[in-house]
Amino acid sequence: MKKLLLLFAFFIVYFESESAELFSKPNPAGDTAVNTKKKVSFRDSLDGAFDVSDFLITVHGFIPVPTLVTEPALGGIGGALGLVFMQPPKHFVPSEKQKTPPRPTIAGAGGMYTANNSWAAGGFYTSEWAKYGIIYTAASAYADINMNFYRTLPLTEKEVHALFNFKSIPVYVAARKTIGERFSAGLKYMFIKTDVSLAKGDTLDGHTFFNQLLEKLENKTQVSRISPTFTFDSRDNMFSPNNGIRIDAQMDWSNKALGSDFNFIQTGVEAYGYKTFLKPWVASLRLEWEQMFQDAAFYMLPAISLRGVPANRYQGSITALAETEHRVNIYKRWAVVGFAGLAKAFDTYPGFSDADWIYNYGGGIRYLIARKFKLQMGVDVGFGPDSWGVYIVFGSGWLRD
Q1: What is the pLDDT of residue 310?
Q2: How many CB atoms lie within 10 A of CB 201?
Q3: Contact present, 370 and 355 (Cβ < 8 Å)
Q4: What is the mean pLDDT of residues 175-180?
Q5: CA distance 212 to 351
Q6: What is the pLDDT of residues 49-92, one digit of tens each?
Q7: Terminal-residue alpha carbon distance, the chain
Q8: Residue 227: pLDDT above 90?
Q9: Which of 103, 214, 274, 332 is the most exposed place for a label (fewest CB within 10 A)?
Q10: Cα–Cα dist 239/317, whole Å
Q11: Residue 32 backbone dihedrals phi, psi, to 5 degrees
């Protein structure tokens, strides 16, 4: 389901992560990300280059964020707009010794529309109970998504696909407690009410097979799941890291006792590593593993997520993925990026060897658009086995949730 709500998840993750350093300690250049009343400038105070740091800091009460949606599974092209309102923490004075400043309170809303008539709108609220080191988030949305799903038929080995429409109402709440400087643990809860049907005007093959799946669902479903989470994070920057490791472990538990139509457990581990070998060259590695136990709707199964590979194109009870990315600074604020990855989706471990390798490769360009936040922005072009896509990147091409 997280793939169906890709943009909705982006709003939660992007703004939740951005808030962590809006009010940070002074950097080596002597700048500090603390709101001060001054004329907004789009020129950096050090090199005179185009930079939005002062705009983000000074106009902290309101930030409009336009985004280009280029996910192939959502029609390949679309647009989104997010509006975010921020309130800095009260009585906060930055300190050289303070490594993790309190987060500001953030409320926001966003909407999107794509070429295949998919659209979504939602809002969120996030803040920190600084006294106890607890960060909490609440969000909800309405999504009307059209997306292709693929399956290989038994016996004939023929691949069929159909375009489905998902009308979903997700409600998301989360809280986590920081433990020392590197660790955090918490709980997430997600409730999703979904109306599933074949999309209007769909003339693709495989309807008989997919109609059988829909009959089991009775079209309307709801998922209620709770997720313990654990995170280790030693990265030097959450937007465009140069060094460090982040590891996320999560277990989703869905049960009828929670009000869900499905009983299942889904576990997953994500690891991201960054290392600067030479000053202009940053090498990074992404490893992911997910597994679904028991039975869930076909659209909830783990799916391979790689640039250039449509969302939900390759699904299985188990997915394993490895992707590497290399970023090289070539001129002042500009950098080039190259990436490549391999993944498999399969249903049992004995079936790993029989599953096809899914690959991606591509490249892109980055520009340091907000120096005080060490935030890079750019464009990637990714290629998969039978598709390609263009991606607008904020910070990192590896979206986290």
Answers
A1: 87
A2: 8
A3: no
A4: 91
A5: 24
A6: 998 877 766 665 455 667 777 777 787 788 888 776 656 555 44
A7: 12
A8: yes
A9: 332
A10: 31
A11: -140, 140
Say how many C-beta atoms besides its own lie within 10 A of residue 188's C-beta. Answer: 18
- Could you tell me the two tokens for 18? 């951005």
- Encode pLDDT of 316-334 as tens digits: 999 999 999 999 999 999 9
| Residue 304: C-alpha distances to residues 76, 159, 288 (Å) | 18, 17, 10
Neighbours of 126 (CB within 10 A): 20
DSSP tag of 19 = G
Mapped onto helix, strand or coil, the DSSP state of residue 311 is coil
Q: Which residues pair with 355 in a beta bridge?
A: none
Strand, coil or helix: what is 5? coil
Structure tokens at 342: 């391999």
Quick check: 107 and 85 in contact, CB under 8 A?
A: yes
Q: Are 136 and 186 in contact (CB under 8 A)?
A: no
Measured CA to CA, the distance from residue 194 to residue 219 in angstroms comes to 8
User: What's the rounded Cα separation, in Å, for the pair 191 and 239?
Assistant: 29
Q: Are strands 183-198 and 159-179 parallel, antiparallel or unpaired?
A: antiparallel
Contact criterion met (CB below 8 Å) for 211 and 217: no
Residue 280 CB neighbour total at 10 angstroms: 12
Nearest by Cα to 400 from 244, 247, 235, 224: 247
Return the exposure string of 40-73: e unless at least 16 CB atoms fall within 10 Å of the residue's CB, then b: eeeebeeeeeebbbbebbeebeebebebebbbbb
DSSP reduced 3-state for 350: helix
* DSSP 3-state of 389: strand
Q: Token pair for residue 152?
A: 């290989």
HSE of 268, CA atoms in CB hemisphere, 13 A:
24
Give the three-state DSSP class for 207.
helix
Angstrom CA distances, 327 to 59, 333, 364, 393, stand at 31, 12, 9, 13
> Which amino acid is it at 121?
A
Nearest-CA neighbor of 212 among 295, 297, 155, 145?
Answer: 297
Find tokens 């982040």 and name the residue.
246
Is 0.85 topped by the overall pTM? no
Structure tokens at 341: 């990855």
Residue carrying the six token digits 């959450």? 238
